[in-house]
Structures are given as C-alpha cells and as structure tokens.
Design goal:
By secondary structure, the chain is of the alpha/beta class. It folds into two domains: 3-97, Rossmann fold; 114-305, Glycogen Phosphorylase B (Rossmann fold, 3-Layer(aba) Sandwich). It has 13 helices and ten strands. It has helices spanning 3-15, 43-47, 53-67, 81-91, 114-124, 144-157, 186-193, 205-209, 223-230, 245-254, 273-284, 288-306, 314-331, and strands at residues 25-27, 35-37, 71-73, 95-97, 131-135, 160-164, 196-199, 214-219, 236-238, 258-260. Helix 1 crosses helix 10, helix 6 (144-157) packs across helix 11 and helix 11 packs across helix 12. The two termini are 33 Å apart. This is UDP-glycosyltransferase 92A1-like protein.
Length: 333
C-alpha cells in the first residue's frame, strides 16, 4: 500500500464520511482537499456502519498505527509527496519512504517457461511502445461480461497486446480457461493476425514492462504493479478493482500518468467495447495526450531510479536516517 492510498483508505474506514451525507461527493475530515465520490468506494465500505466486522477490524489496525514509533513505507518521496504529507499530518511520527526495492528487469532467468519464451518472442517482433500489457494481479479477475467487452474492444482497437487472463468471477479460478468466455473465434483471429497473446499462467512482468515494445499497462493498480510500472516509465490504463487500488488510480490520474478505463468488478462497472477502443487509442495512439502521458511517465521513471543513488537519493537518505535512529535508540538503552 502506498502513502496516498493508505491515507485515504484509513480516513474512510476511521470516519465513514459517506454515512454523514446524502451527497454522492464528500471530503475527508482530515484532508478536506481530497474529494471522494461514492463510486470510488468498495461494496464493504458502502455497507459499513461502524458496528460491522470490517469496521471493527480495520479501526483496530488503524489504532495500532498511531501506537507505533515510526513507519517504513515502500514508496518514493518525490513520487508521493502529497500522500506522505497526509500520513505525517495525521500520524505525527517519523515516516521514511524506502522504495522501490525492485530487482533488475534484465536479471537472467534460471529457466525459461514456454510462456516466457513466447512473450519475449512476441515483444521482439513488435514496434517500439506499441504493445498493451494487461494484468489484474495474481489475486484478481473480472466478470465474464467485462472480459467479453474488453476482448471486443481490444480487437476493435487493432492494438497489439499481451493479456494475462484467468477464469472470470464465479468460475473455478484454478480450473482451465474456456474459449466460451471470450468472443467466438477471438483466440484464432488474434493468433492469425499476430496482434495478441493470451497467457493463462505466470508472466515475467518486470521483463515485459522493461521491453522497448511495451507502450502501456492495463492494470488493477495494486501498489507493487504501480511501482514496477513507474520504474520503467510505462503509462497506465487504470481498472482498479478493490481495497486501495481505486485511490492509487486517483493519484496516478492526478499526476497525469494514466487514464481510468473502469472501476470495480461489478458487472455494471465494466467498460463497453467503444470505451475500451477510445481509451486504448488515447494512451497507445499517436495523439497529443498520449505523448504527454509518455513524457510524464518517463520523468517519474527517472525519479524512481534516482531514489537509491548513493549521494542525494531520497530513499537512500531515508534508509540511512532509519538506521541512524536505530543506532541512537540502542545507544540510549
């Protein structure tokens, strides 16, 4: 969890501000500059009243945060100055950003799977910044109807893509994938045209993001995926599904690093075929907004990469301050 997403998540569960108004939009008590919409809340939050199990559990966790001595957080000062300021304001304790702890994308694999070989071969055959990488993380999937519309939109856009795809919600996620969950003939058409690759298992995400042909990432906006994406300067098409992901998406859009395609995993929240085509063209296409998103993504890539510089890197300095505080505390005992 990042700083901004964490601050918003904790404020929502601690205060339940949406229960104090009939309006669809509302501000957070600690952060009046942050305006939320009910559509950005998960099902559990919308149903919470303070006495439910989720409210009780999360309030206990938030109380523990206030009782700690300091916090190490996986982010970068320059990337999340707003979110870090929000946490420091409410928690009033040292918060040291020490991210991102990423392994190099070009680290050699001990052994390559057939999928990895196919992925890299596909990427090598595509023009620079032309491929859309799609993954909803290791724990998430979407509704069957949403999957169908996404496939139709991808095919309609003509954009090349790599899609890490799992069975839809309501099916056995450990079972085999069935072609009926996609448009009739979709798999054969994208293979014949050499424009798409469907991956049903693990994918080497860092290698994909670091490849010259990858132009954007359609992501659920989990925090690790965001750090990996920003570390490679790749724009994001956001489809947040739950927890802090919606708030992470808010931050990315505010920073000009992506565009939101959809929000949530309910059938009513899925994008239409036309919406998929529109957003893919906006982020991967040649128009002016696409160029601006790419420019900003590369700026933040440089920010992330400099965070661990031996001299002047913000994450390096934070880690040194943390170690110094430990040594000081040990010397005072």
């Amino acid at each position: 969890m990042g700083a901004f997403g964490g601050a918003v998540f904790f404020s929502l569960w601690w205060n339940l501000p949406h229960t104090l108004t009939d309006s669809n939009s509302f501000s957070l008590p600690e952060y009046p500059e942050v305006v939320m919409d009910r559509s950005q809340l998960t099902k559990y939050l919308l149903e919470a009243d303070g006495t439910d199990e989720w409210s009780q559990f999360l309030k206990r966790q938030i109380m523990f945060l206030h009782e700690t001595d300091a916090i190490l957080i996986n982010t970068v000062e320059e990337f999340e100055s707003l979110g870090l300021g929000m946490l420091r304001k409410t928690l009033k304790l040292p918060i040291w950003p020490i991210g991102p702890p990423l392994a190099p994308a070009n680290q050699p694999s001990s052994s390559k799977s057939e999928d990895e070989t196919a992925i890299m071969t596909f990427l090598d055959s595509q023009p620079p910044e032309s491929v859309l990488y799609i993954s909803f993380g290791s724990q998430n999937t979407i509704q069957r109807e949403q999957m169908m519309h996404l496939a139709q939109g991808l095919e309609g856009s003509g954009c090349s893509f790599i899609w890490v795809i799992r069975p839809p919600i309501g099916s056995d996620l450990r079972g085999g994938f069935r072609d009926e969950w996609l448009p009739h003939g979709f798999k054969d058409r994208i293979k014949q045209k050499h424009i798409g690759l469907l991956i049903h298992g693990w994918a080497p995400q860092l290698k994909i993001l670091g490849h010259r042909s990858t132009g954007a990432f359609l992501s659920h906006c989990g925090w690790n995926s965001i750090l990996e994406t920003m570390g490679h300067g790749v724009p994001i098409i956001a489809w947040p599904l739950s927890a802090d992901q919606i708030f992470n998406s808010m931050m990315l859009i505010e920073l000009g690093l992506g565009v939101e395609l959809a929000r949530g995993m309910m059938e009513s929240s899925g994008p239409t075929k036309a919406k998929v085509e529109e957003v893919v063209d906006l982020v991967i296409g040649p128009d002016a907004k696409d160029m601006e998103i790419r420019r900003r993504a590369k700026e933040y890539r440089d920010v992330m990469n400099k965070a661990w510089d031996e001299e002047g890197g913000s994450s390096m300095e934070s880690l040194q301050q943390f170690v110094q505080s430990i040594n000081t505390a040990a010397g005072n005992q």
